[in-house]
Design the sequence.
């Protein structure tokens, strides 16, 4: 979780990632930032996020992102 | 059949009466028949194109669905170990991908041939220094709404491939999804998993929804006939003659073109969504007060939303996460360009999306340059993001409403300015911008050229009323549905408001000789 928070704060330090669960719906994370996030998750967590998984439900909160990473790691 | 014609109103009225008279279980069949009739009104032979798209996509999606079912059965019955399961799934995915690719190549191939052959041939003439017309143009007749129904249908095929929606088994139901008459001409581009419920469930007559639909249609007529068509001849004169209309007229042309584009397209969407609401069918919105955006990216998230959403989901994300982008990114890393590596995939995908956006809007270099210019502005803006954030942290008061208003004006001007690539020849865009900045004077508005545009004092009053009304409705929308607010008012207020709007459309709308209300700008794609 800490690694993910570090990535997120590096991409956009102005958001409250601990409490916000509408990060994509509220356009706090833009599509540019989502792709940068996906790129860094791949490098740090060694997991590839396919484009069909880049949907708001998977990125609206830190918990949702961790759950996606966990699921994809399990599938690999 | 234009959406702003008496024929269409009669057609819609007849369809609506029949829709609520026939048994509810056949409502969707009636809509399909009506959609075929609507399309055939422009030439029955052109119905062949959407039929090819519908049948090929329906068939391939079914095959993809069958492959998924076979895979599930295999896993349930054979209980393979993890490695076997992975290998089997990879094989099925490859098979599904081949089917999806066949559908995409066929249908985007048809679109590309019909829409871009002449553009390609024209460029070959130039490239080989041939005389103009040495390679003759083919001038295919473009089937109505081909860009919209092709994009909508291909979105469905990709969604089935991704497992986001189940394939539709009934060919005729799928045909309705492809040809549903209000939206087929200019969108919005819908997703099957959202639209199927709306199209195929049974609808009882709902007086409130029907009234709301009619109000929305009226509002669309107002935008199109009273504003867009009124300013269209003047805008065409200014933008077609940059040598005559220079100085301050460059700005007038910019703003006029933007206003015409917005009122024309969003007016069309109001009619389309309003007509659908009368049938009890909700379509996705295509505009969300775009000129309230504070930067260009935000504006594009509020303008033609279903198309930009399509590009984001089916091009931007897949390209930016593709193997190609990963390889390029790694290569940049090896060269020591570490700062670039995380942004490179985003920027490559962004430029591809904006190239496609440009060429989607028109088969001409002006449109491609307009698209790329938008993409480049967004990338530059992204590069300055950290600087903006630091600025706002240092000067927190700049987050106030005055600065916000300035940001909105700046964004609107930027959007309008970039549209110059669409109507001026490329070589003159920067020259005209320079001309405006160096020689633009307000006094030029009174030098006689304005009078030649054919706009009388009454036109300006009508346009001013239109702008005030749109602004007012935009402000009211921020706190909820304007029609619900109006419906909550006493009958006399409701009647007066709707009656006045109706009279405005009737009296101040542009009809008859000299005006061509037959085409919406976005019908031509």
Sequence:
């Amino acid at each position: 979780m800490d690694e993910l928070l570090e990535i997120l704060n590096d991409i956009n330090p102005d958001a409250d990632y601990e409490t916000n669960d509408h990060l994509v719906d509220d356009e706090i994370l833009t599509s540019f930032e989502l792709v940068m996030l996906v790129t860094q998750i791949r490098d740090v967590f060694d997991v590839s996020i396919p484009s069909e998984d880049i949907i708001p439900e998977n990125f609206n909160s830190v918990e949702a992102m961790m759950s996606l990473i966990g699921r994809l790691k399990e599938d690999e | 059949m234009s959406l702003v014609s008496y024929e269409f109103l009669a057609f819609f009225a007849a369809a609506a009466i029949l829709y609520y008279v026939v048994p509810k279980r056949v409502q969707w069949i009636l809509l399909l028949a009506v959609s075929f009739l609507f399309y055939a009104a422009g030439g029955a032979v052109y119905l062949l194109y959407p039929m090819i798209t519908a049948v090929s996509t329906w068939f391939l999606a079914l095959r993809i669905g069958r492959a998924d079912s076979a895979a599930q059965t295999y896993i349930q019955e054979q209980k393979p170990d993890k490695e076997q399961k992975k290998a089997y799934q990879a094989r099925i995915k490859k098979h599904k991908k081949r089917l999806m690719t066949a559908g995409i190549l066929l249908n985007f191939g048809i679109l590309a041939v019909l829409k871009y052959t002449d553009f390609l041939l024209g460029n070959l003439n130039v490239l080989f220094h041939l005389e103009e017309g040495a390679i003759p143009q083919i001038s295919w007749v473009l089937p109505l709404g081909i860009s919209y129904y092709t994009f909508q249908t291909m979105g469905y095929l990709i969604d089935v491939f991704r497992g986001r929606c189940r394939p539709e088994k009934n060919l005729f139901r799928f045909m309705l999804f492809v040809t549903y008459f209000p939206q087929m001409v200019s969108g919005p581009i819908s997703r099957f998993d959202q639209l199927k419920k709306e199209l195929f469930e049974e609808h009882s007559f709902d007086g409130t929804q029907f009234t709301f639909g009619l109000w929305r249609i009226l509002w669309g007529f107002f935008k199109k006939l009273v504003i867009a068509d009124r300013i269209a001849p003047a805008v065409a004169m200014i933008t077609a003659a940059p040598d005559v209309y220079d100085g301050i007229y460059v700005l007038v042309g910019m703003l006029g073109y933007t206003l015409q584009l917005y009122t024309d397209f969003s007016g069309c969407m109001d009619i389309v969504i309003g007509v659908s609401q009368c049938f009890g069918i909700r379509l996705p919105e295509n505009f969300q007060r775009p000129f309230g955006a504070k930067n260009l990216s935000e504006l594009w998230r509020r303008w033609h939303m279903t198309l930009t959403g399509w590009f984001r989901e089916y091009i931007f994300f897949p390209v930016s996460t593709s193997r190609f982008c990963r390889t390029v990114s790694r290569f940049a890393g090896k060269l020591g360009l570490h700062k670039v590596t995380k942004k490179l995939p985003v920027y490559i995908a962004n430029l591809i999306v904006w190239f496609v956006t440009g060429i989607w809007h028109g088969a001409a270099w002006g449109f491609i340059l307009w698209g790329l210019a938008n993409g480049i502005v967004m990338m530059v803006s992204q590069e300055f993001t950290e600087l903006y954030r630091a600025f706002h942290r240092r000067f927190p008061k700049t987050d106030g409403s005055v600065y916000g208003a300035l940001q909105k004006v700046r964004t609107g001007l930027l959007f309008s300015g970039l549209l110059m690539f669409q109507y001026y020849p490329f070589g003159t865009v920067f020259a005209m911008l320079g001309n405006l900045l160096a020689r633009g004077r307000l006094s030029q508005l009174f030098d006689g050229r304005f009078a030649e545009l054919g706009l009388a004092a009454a036109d300006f009053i009508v346009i001013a009323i239109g702008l005030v009304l749109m602004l007012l409705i935009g402000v009211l929308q921020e706190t909820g549905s304007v029609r619900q607010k109006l419906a909550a008012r006493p009958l006399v207020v409701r009647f007066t408001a709707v009656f006045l709007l109706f009279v405005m459309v009737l009296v101040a709308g542009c009809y008859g000789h000299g005006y061509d209300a037959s085409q919406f700008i976005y019908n031509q794609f």
Q: What stands out?
A: The radius of gyration of chain B is 25 Å. Chain B touches chain A at residues 162-164, 297-298, 301, 312, 316-318, 320-321, 326, 329, 341-343, 345-346, 349-350, 378, 382, 389 (CB under 8 Å).
